[in-house]
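User: Hey, my collaborator sent me this sequence without any context and asked if I could get a structure. I don't really work with proteins. Can you help?
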Amino acid sequence: MSARSFELLLETAFDEETPQLFEGGPSAAYANLEQAFKAARLKTGASANELNFRFEMVRLGAAIAFVKAFTRLADNEKTKEVLDVLSEAVKAKSTQEIDKIIQKKIGSFDHLYHEIFVNEQREHILALFENTLDASSKEELDALIQEGAELLQEVDWDATGSNDDDDEQIDEDLLKSLL
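Assistant: No problem. I've predicted the 3D structure and written it out in structure-token form, which is a compact way to encode the shape of the chain:
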């Protein structure tokens, strides 16, 4: 069930775009985590490094989904930089490489916090993103993926975009009338 939730989270966040984040798709990335988790529990070959890497890949995938959804709602170029950093990190071959990529461009993450309080859904998505980064167990990550998949199903993506355009038009009209 969680592999499907992970896939649904990414599909919904990206809408019609098909993200090619993982070789074999999101389900394969999640299956790799489950295999590493099971092998580590049974001590049949999967090292702690392998388990940590697989966990980081799924966590990055969830983080990417939340940032993509946030970007769609915020339509802010600066937030797209965060998406680029995370997309670069998901191509890493080790957790150390992921950390190096993220640390190199950590300042871009500050852009996520501009104008968040204007939209309740953006706040919720950003909170899920933050919780994803703090997640320390598979169960915690599964719960965040499930909550995110459910939340993104409820977002009215069309209404969000059209409201922003209407607000800008009203502001422009108001400014013209004042001049």
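In plain terms: The two ends are 58 Å apart (CA to CA). You can pass these tokens on to your collaborator as they are.
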